[in-house]
Amino acid sequence: MEMPLIGLLANDLLALSKQRAIAKAAGFKVAFSAQIDEAWQPNASQKGVDCWLHGAGSDEAESQAVLVSDGELPSFEARGFNSWVDRLKQLDQHGCLSLSKLVIVAASTGGPQVISELLTSLPVIEDTAVLIVQHQSVGAETSMIEQFSKTGPWPVVAVKSVSQLRGGRVYVLTAEDKVSFSRNLTLARSSTPWSGQFSPSIDHVVGSVTTRFRGECLVIYLSGLSGEGPSGARLAHGAGATIWVQEPSSAVADGMINDVKDIIHVDAQLLPSEMADAVLNWTK
């Protein structure tokens, strides 16, 4: 079978050699390799490489990358080498573009019950990922992952454990680490806290994802208090995303739902029992 292709970008030749060793061990063939600086821009042939590993500080490089080398890469047989190989293997090795549709579920008070109902009835869709942005306390994502895993057929994982979103998965954000997304939904973590009074920030995630994702995006606002929603919904609407809200009469708290409805024209209002079929139809 033909080896998948990857591009390497780094600030120095030593980093490039470490990247090459990791890529080779993960089963990739290096299609392009370069030492770059902040002024680097990809040419036409380089833009055709879908999978990238990089550690350089260029905005162009970050927008191209599938996996960002956050920190110094280990040398062959050094501690951490095998974990980097495993991270790279997590990627879709046939173009890294298996994710063509994304469903963002934004929720606060009363949200987990509705999310469980949705995941119970929704069959796994191979080219679609579900990103859960649920206001929570620090450490609560572990119990949510256990809850959502038991209720439906989808594999449920923490965003902090992966380097890029893939189809056929449900991802749960943590309240601890602020995360931003590049165009191909590579994750960029930050030591700064989430913006606003809630964690994780619905507005930050919805705005970051919908303005960068190259595929189709659906945002569903569920039960929640006022305080978040409108800012991200406005950005999502401007980016062409489909936006639904839970029927307010069925929500434990309808503040976020009504705030979103006040700022944009939503595409649908749905009862929790209607959402799974509606999502399945949307993906088709």
Give an overview of the whole structure.
There is one protein chain. The chain is of the alpha/beta class and 284 residues long. The protein folds into 2 domains: 5-89, Rossmann fold (3-Layer(aba) Sandwich), CATH 3.40.50; 101-283, Methylesterase CheB, C-terminal domain (Rossmann fold), CATH 3.40.50.180. It is 33% helix and 21% strand. It contains 10 helices and 13 strands. The protein has a 7-stranded parallel beta sheet, with helices on both faces. It has a 4-stranded parallel beta sheet with strand order 2-1-3-4. Strands 9-10 form a two-stranded antiparallel ribbon. Strand 3 (52-54), helix 3 and strand 4 (67-68) form a beta-alpha-beta unit. It starts with a strand and ends with a helix. Residues 92-97 have low confidence and may be disordered.
Keywords:
single chain, 284 residues, alpha/beta, Rossmann fold, 2 domains, seven-stranded parallel sheet, four-stranded parallel sheet
Q: Could you write a compact summary of the structure shown?
A:
The chain has 284 residues and is α/β, with parallel strands linked by helices. Helix content is 33%, strand content 21%.
Q: What is this structure's SSE topology?
A:
Layout: E1 5-10, H1 13-25, E2 29-35, H2 44-47, E3 52-54, H3 59-64, E4 67-68, H4 81-89, E5 101-107, H5 111-121, E6 128-134, H6 141-151, E7 156-158, E8 170-172, E9 178-181, E10 187-190, H7 202-210, E11 216-221, H8 230-238, E12 242-246, H9 255-263, E13 268-270, H10 272-283
Parallel strand pairs: 1-2, 1-3, 3-4, 5-6, 5-11, 6-8, 7-8, 11-12, 12-13
Antiparallel strand pairs: 9-10
Helix pairs in contact: 5-6, 5-10, 7-8, 8-9
